Amino acid sequence: MHMISLTTTIICTTASMGLAQNICDSDLTPAEARLARNRQDAGAYSMRAGPVQPVVISVAWHVLETTDGRRAIEDDELQLMIDYLNDQWETVNISFAAHPLVDRIVNDVWWDDVPDANELRSMRRLPNALNIYWAPSLEGGGLCGRSSFTFSTLDTIVMQSSCLGYTDVRGVFAHEVGHWFDLFHTFETATGVECVARTNCLNTGDLLCDTPASFGLQFTTCVDPITCNRKPGSFCNRSGPCPGDPLYDPSTTNFMSYSVPPCISEFTPGQYERMRSTTDNLRSDYANTGLHDPCPADIDGSLAVGANDVLALLDAYGPCSDDCESDITGDGQTDVNDVLVLLGAWGPCFSCTDANACDDGDPGTLDYCLFGTCTHEVITGCAVGEIPDCNGHCVPAAWVGDGVCDDGSFTHDGLPVFLNCDAFNCDGGDCICP
């Protein structure tokens, strides 16, 4: 089996303790745990001195759809997700804003189930944005979400539209975004088992001391979905792992636990500090990129610059008492300079807004509109998410640059995989080409 060097987080849609432990393999590897501790020791997870400046993270939505118009998630629900993130991250002056266009991935085969979530979330990324993919079912419906850390190769998030039967997955979504900011599970053990007395909390568990030591609550196994209290029973009320430890008293409301989706609703101050420091020190390429506002002269949000934008600009002419959309140049006032920029941007903001505008008439290409730009992908004859390797055999596209050298040592569909050639830049740098 091809081992992918990618740490992911999985929340399962099963309350079966044994099955969940088998499926939900979300622990850090020992090497990644050492890396996380080294980063912490080096100060990467410590806040910088001085005021906390506002940061905007641009979000790129990718939504699985069918040819008859069914969508994994509707646009108004996507806005609710953005609003929820902004409510939770306001504490550390981080906000999220979505690109005005949604990448609609039309695939009838994947609608019933996406067999490999990594294939979906490796498609059609917008660089320097937080790319988030949505599907009705992931890997048999047993996967609610999967994310990445700053040291992961595949730097995206994929979400299932429901989790444990709940259609409101905002808490699960915040959980996955928390991982993207290098938050670990409250029950992480790859760094070492945390004592309930917290005597070793700085270098074990989630590496934070204000999150109580925890074990895997396994969703409804240990948490009452109505009261959010821990259920009785020896498995859910066990002694701590260290000599002299009292009983575990884990949080059932922390976003980074495996509590029931409706119950997870809060971060701790230490988790907030971790996320803000990760933004400043490790994800600076994603901060204030402006990708969510690719057409600043489009004041009325119509995806085109026209007469209504002129009227809105003239109505706001003069100094801006606060941020105002009419101040296109960002100099604190709406004036002739903004008028000139607006006139220079006159017309449609994007070369396309849907796939129908991108048909080049060539049956050998897959045509789609990717965040305002027409893309014509050469059809290889491989399945979606696969590419021909150096020998022309179809292999998973996600295997390129995944940290494993594919020099024939691994197989796919019974054939050895070769990506160690110039066409793939020596497997994305994983190999030394012959």
**CATH homologous superfamily title of the largest domain:** Collagenase (Catalytic Domain)
- Give the helices and strands as they follow along the chain: HHEHEEHHEEEHHEHEEHEEEEEEEH
Strand residue percentage: 15-25%
Return the CATH topology of the largest domain. Answer: Collagenase (Catalytic Domain)
Regions with pLDDT < 50 over 5+ consecutive residues? 1-10, 12-25
CATH architecture of the largest domain: 3-Layer(aba) Sandwich
Number of separate helices: 10
Q: State the total count of DSSP E strands.
A: 16
Radius of gyration (CA) equals 24 Å
Percent helix among the residues?
10-25%
Can you describe what's shown?
This protein is globular. It has helices at 17-23, 30-41, 75-89, 108-112, 117-120, 170-180, 269-282, 307-315, 336-344, 425-428; strands at residues 55-65, 94-98, 103-106, 130-135, 145-146, 157-160, 304-305, 318-319, 333-334, 347-348, 365-370, 373-378, 386-388, 394-396, 407-412, 415-418. It is of the alpha/beta class. The chain is built from 10 helices and 16 strands. The protein folds into 3 domains: 1-292, Collagenase (Catalytic Domain); 304-348, no CATH class; 380-434, no CATH class. Strands 1, 2, 3, 4, 5 and 6 form a 6-stranded mixed beta sheet that branches. The chain starts with 16 loop residues before the first helix and ends in a 6-residue tail after the last helix.
Care to give the gist of this entry?
The protein has 434 residues and is α/β, with parallel strands linked by helices. It has helices at 17-23, 30-41, 75-89, 108-112, 117-120, 170-180, 269-282, 307-315, 336-344, 425-428, and strands spanning 55-65, 94-98, 103-106, 130-135, 145-146, 157-160, 304-305, 318-319, 333-334, 347-348, 365-370, 373-378, 386-388, 394-396, 407-412, 415-418.
